[in-house]
Amino acid sequence: MKKLVTALASFLLVFSLSGCEDAKANVSNPKEPILTVGSKTITKNDVNTVLSASIGSQVAVTNALKTVTSKEVEETEEIKNQAKSELENLKQIYGEGFETILKQMNTNEEDYMQDYILPMIKTHELNKIYVDENFDELVKQYDPMMVTVLSFANEEDANAALAGLNDGSLTPLEASEKYEATTRGNSEIVTLDTYKYDALTLAALRSMSESDGFTVVQDESGSMFNVVKVDSKDVASFKDEFVAFVSNNPAFTMEVNEYYFKKYNFHVYDITLYNALKQNQPNLLVQDIKEEK
User: Fold this and answer.
1) 66: part of which helix (H) or strand (E)?
2) What is the tens place of the pLDDT at every residue in 195-248?
């Protein structure tokens, strides 16, 4: 069952600040523009005073993503069906309590799907688009590969598991359970940023190819014996897994947001909102980034 991501997205909020001094929107003037994108204008009345608090900066960011995804991600029947399926999953998880939650949020199933679930799915699709457009660069940056690692506390168990794996009598999961490995033996992604395993184990994996099969590597502490195998170094063959992997990396999320905020000229007019973003997510204030000459 898919994990529901709580981050939502709404309209892209941008405003042209060229030639303007720092300003603060006047609450008494509900029609006063705070942010705009293209022909769309977002007024103080549209967003209410929540944008004047620190929470407002997160609202602005999540709101910005919806307009980005509306422009970059086509809402296909597949995506709509995925949203419906996710809604059904949530109803099964929470049972009758789901309706109570919706009432507390002052919403209903259809609005919840439109306001929460679809944006989450489309944000994931946006990550896919970004990976596609920057694939070669990201592969160089992360250097990912799919590997299987089973860790054992003693060499005897590691060698016994190795024998069963290499003669095909045991699957990685069976070897893990039979010889009490501390890992489950699932195929997983490791990158240049992986710190889950020690340097010797990672170096061994880097030197191996898919045809090498399983081998035993003693970790640098000398206390663990890792049975390792490279499953694939062809990133194109596990692109979906790679997208899911990097999407859980806050640095990647920041990179994607900054890229699209630049593309759509995210620009803040309200000084209170500007200061909140400056303190919490300064990289998203792309209006402050000077173009390279």
Assistant:
1) helix 54-72
2) 999 999 999 999 999 999 999 999 999 999 999 999 999 999 999 999 989 988
SS3 of 84, please? helix
**Contact partners, residue 256, CB within 8 Å, separation at least 6:** 126, 127, 130
- Identify which of 18, 17, 7 has the alpha carbon closest to the alpha carbon of residue 273: 17
Please give the distance of CA 145 from its chain centroid, rounded to a whole number.
18
Backbone dihedral angles phi then psi of residue 154, each to the nearest 5 degrees: -140, 155
Instruction: Say how far apart CA 46 and CA 270 lie, in whole Å.
Output: 14
Query: 50 falls in which pLDDT band (50, 70, 90)?
Result: very low
Identity of residue 9: A
d(CA 36, CA 28) in angstroms, rounded, equals 19
- Identify the bridge partners of residue 228 per DSSP, sorted by sequence position: 149, 215
Per the structure block, which two tokens stand in for 209? 């190819």
The SS3 of residue 58 is helix
Residues with Cβ < 8 Å from 139, sequence gap 6 or more? Answer: 235
**Tokens encoding 246:** 């990097």
- CA-CA-CA-CA torsion for 56, 62, 63, 66, nearest 10 degrees? 180
Angle of helix 77-94 relative to helix 118-133, nearest 10 degrees, comes to 130
197 contact partners, CB below 8 Å, separation of at least 6: 149, 190, 219, 226
Q: Are 158 and 119 in contact (CB under 8 A)?
A: no
Give the closest residue to 165 by CA, choosing from 156, 157, 155, 175: 175
pLDDT of 190: 96
DSSP character at residue 286: G
Q: Which residues pair with 148 in a beta bridge?
A: 229
In 3-state terms, what secondary structure has residue 287?
Answer: helix
- Helices 135-142 + 239-247 axis angle, to 10: 70
